[in-house]
Amino acid sequence: MSALLEVRDLSVAYGAIEAVRDISFTVEAGHIVSLIGSNGAGKTTTLRTISGLLRPTGGEIVFDGKPIHDQPAHTILGSGLAHCPEGRRLFPRMTVEENLQLGAYVRKDDGVEADMQNVYELFPVLGERRHNKAGLFSGGEQQMLAIGRAMMSKPKLLMLDEPSMGLSPIMTQLIFDTIKELQKQGTTILLVEQNALAALALSDHGYVIDLGQTTLDGPGHELLADERVRAAYLGED
Amino acid sequence: MSTLLQQLANGVVQGALIALIALGYTMVYGIIQLINFAHGEVFMVGAYGGLATYTWIVPESVKDVWYVSLPIVLVGGVAVSVAIALLMERFAYRPLRNAPRLAPLITALGVSVFLQEFVRNFYPNATAALPFPGVFVQGQLVIGPIRVGWSGILLIGVSVLLSIALQTYINRSRMGRAMRATAQDPDTAKLMGVNPDRVIVLTFVLGAALAGVAGVLFGTYLNNINTDMGFQTGIFAFTAAVLGGVGSIRGAVVGAFIIGLVKTLAGQYMPGGTQYDYVWIFVVLILVLVFRPQGLFGEPERVRA
């Protein structure tokens, strides 16, 4: 096992406001790693910085052995790091098929069509509605499409930001099952969730982020058993 | 009756010309939310580029053979328009990419004035209107009471063809998808690996190429060009883009034909004649904006999360 992604002492600020302070964590190849923490803890900011949409004010991001924190956002996906953003961010006025084609935008090989069929097999509802505009879909269907779109680039590491947000419990279960399945197929996953219970149950390793800092970390099942985590995030006294 | 039919035909020719320019306004707005007020001047320099090509590059022996000289003149006009648009994007707008929106808008006005004055001062004898050669079949198509110069028919044909080609390119090609993605959600487009600079440059190039074609065909149709032509026609084209719903390709084309028809019909039938055609065009614009602020084909809201 080697570290696929290493974040060291990362700091990010919006003007004078520091959203992330000296966060460090590691994602081992093949693992599911989750970042949990309350609203405003800096989880989304961290992912957006890894993707190059934000510039860090300090620290390092090393992916697959190469520093990427000063790379422009549009070059990050090409190195094998896909980001499925918060709120899905589909292209609402494009069809399912066009959204998937955009997911494969950086690919030059001719396996795109076959991979699109794989997404339709994984989520049959997308296949049935491939020519419909994505903006008309339900939250769960949009999340399936967002994950499918991110997988179209065949990433080494898939970052998922709040995939369960706004979904029914059944749909949430389906999405988490899918994440487990993607791991089995060889994709490394970095998961950001407010749904700490479900995320940690799935994770090989978890990090708790609070007020822009990593406060706790450990294997998913250990964090699940940790009193402090249970008190803060699982609503137990 | 015959006057009405004739004016309708003139309006369609005007609309075809305005459409070619309106497409550039609407595409650039769709991608970077900038009304590029200098786009009318991209059309104007296309006409002067075409004239220069005809004067100094087309060999004397083929100057009267339109099917040889017209393609050369078109290439020359388009090349000048595209070159100017590229310079404008790189040196005037790109440095202001993250500036408040008013900054590039004012810069666009500055570029517009600069280009007008530059051509007026440095193109030989451009302080007055210059004659433009009729590099197409001379004479008119006569259908009953309607007469339209063949160069007007050419303008209609080319405009319709290029609009369809552009629409198809944007809807079907990989770069077209990248353009639409950037227009709908620039950050997420970057996450897909789309290089925003490439998309923006491509947008300026496509718009400028259409404007360059329009410049040359305008000269061929009216047989005379001046440095104000971009400003005047640019206003019509900008209005057409807003009327159709700025950002929408179909809207720009439909808006252009509406403006063309309103302009010629108002010039014929409304009090004040052609001197007041602007007034009626803006009356139509104001009415549309009051009752349908997003324009005829515009999206009522921007991208939802």
UniProtKB/TrEMBL annotation, chain A:
Keyword ATP-binding in annotation: yes
Claim: Transcription is one of the keywords in the record: no
GO molecular function: ATP binding; ATP hydrolysis activity; branched-chain amino acid transmembrane transporter activity
GO biological process, one term: L-amino acid transport
CDD domains for this protein: ABC_TM1139_LivF_branched
Ranges where the ABC transporter domain occurs: 5-236
Keywords tagged on the record: Amino-acid transport, ATP-binding, Nucleotide-binding, Transport
Taxonomic superkingdom: Bacteria
Family: Belongs to the ABC transporter superfamily.
Protein name: Amino acid/amide ABC transporter ATP-binding protein 2 (HAAT family)
Organism: Umezawaea tangerina
UniProtKB/TrEMBL annotation, chain B:
One GO CC annotation: plasma membrane
Name of the protein described by the UniProt record: Amino acid/amide ABC transporter membrane protein 1 (HAAT family)
Record's keyword annotation contains Cell membrane: yes
One of the protein's GO biological processes: L-alanine transport
Transmembrane segments: 12-35, 42-59, 65-87, 148-170, 199-222, 234-266, 278-297
UniProt GO molecular function: L-isoleucine transmembrane transporter activity; L-leucine transmembrane transporter activity; L-phenylalanine transmembrane transporter activity; L-valine transmembrane transporter activity
Organism: Umezawaea tangerina
Localization in the cell: Cell membrane
Similarity field: Belongs to the binding-protein-dependent transport system permease family. LivHM subfamily.
Keyword Repeat: no
PANTHER family according to UniProt: BRANCHED-CHAIN AMINO ACID TRANSPORT SYSTEM PERMEASE PROTEIN LIVH (PTHR11795), HIGH-AFFINITY BRANCHED-CHAIN AMINO ACID TRANSPORT SYSTEM PERMEASE PROTEIN LIVH (PTHR11795:SF371)
This protein's UniProt keywords: Amino-acid transport, Cell inner membrane, Cell membrane, Membrane, Transmembrane, Transmembrane helix, Transport
Main location as per UniProt: membrane
Membrane topology category: Multi-pass membrane protein
